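Study this one:
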Amino acid sequence: MGRLLSLLALADLALIVVALIDCLSAEHYEIRTLPRIAWIFIIVLISPIGPMVWYMAGRPDRMLDPELELERGLRQDGEPVEPSGPGRVLAPDDDPEFLRQLAARNRDREEERLRAWEADLRRRERELRRERERGRDGEAGREGKLGRECERPAEEPPADPKI
């Protein structure tokens, strides 16, 4: 018996929570018969009958209101509702013109980034070539100096280490 009571209490709590969320998420002009604050008190204080009364008498009848169907995007049969006319608002990811502009902007940015990378690569290659050329010139110059310093003139006799 205790298990059944705890299960019923849990179901009552779930019903209260769902009804409160539904009541609080409904627009104030959609709520029927009583103001929102009265429905909140009824849902919380008269449990489990309060949530049931909310669903029968206070909850907006969303399936019969064409404006709400358009807002939700579905008709009663579950088919999507497509707004028509020149004032039709499209989400950005559905608007072909927006998608074209976005693709062009991304393409331009990517091309600019590639140009910058290529210019940077060319600049680095030039610097590397210059450093290599300087290195070769420096090595040749050092070899020449070392070679000249190591050479002794023919007129001088070799130095005598004993003296």
Residues 146-150 have pLDDT under 50 and may be disordered. The chain is about 65% helix and 0% strand. The longest helix spans residues 96-150. Helices lie at 2-25, 36-45, 49-58, 66-72, 96-150.
